[in-house]
Amino acid sequence: MADRVLVPYDGSPQATDALELTFDEFPDATVIALYVIEIPDGRWAQLLGPELQAPVSEKAKEHAADVLETATELAAESGRSLETNVVTGEPDDRIVAQAAAESVDLIVIGSHGKEGVSRVLLGSVAETVVRRSPVPVLVVR
């Protein structure tokens, strides 16, 4: 059984389904909702690392806080507590890095179809997380 579960949460229906499933299936686990403020490819991507972070706007930070407040409300409705965290960068990279940094046992991630044949079953972020994760990944459709 998983003691620590990371749920990437962006407020989408798929992420909400993943969070709710986590509350139902892992009642004793510590749940961490992670919001990634996406920094586009380019020069800023070179700055990402354990100590350097690209600057983000106050509007982006406020949006992240609002999204995670919704996740916290979902947790309260389920009678659960929730840890939250906001990071910046490429979502797939940061999810995998956060899983290692938080010493989680499992990632529960929502999936949704993207364009192209390879994205029919998994979204591109979920697909990359599944391939690169240091821990098991449960994909919720």
UniProtKB/TrEMBL annotation:
State the source organism's domain of life: Archaea
Q: The UspA domain covers which part of the protein?
A: 1-141
Alphabetical list of Pfam families matching this protein: Usp (PF00582)
Which family is this sequence assigned to? Belongs to the universal stress protein A family.
Which PANTHER family does the UniProt entry name for this protein? STRESS RESPONSE PROTEIN NHAX, UNIVERSAL STRESS PROTEIN
Q: What is the protein name stated in its UniProt record?
A: Universal stress protein UspA-like protein
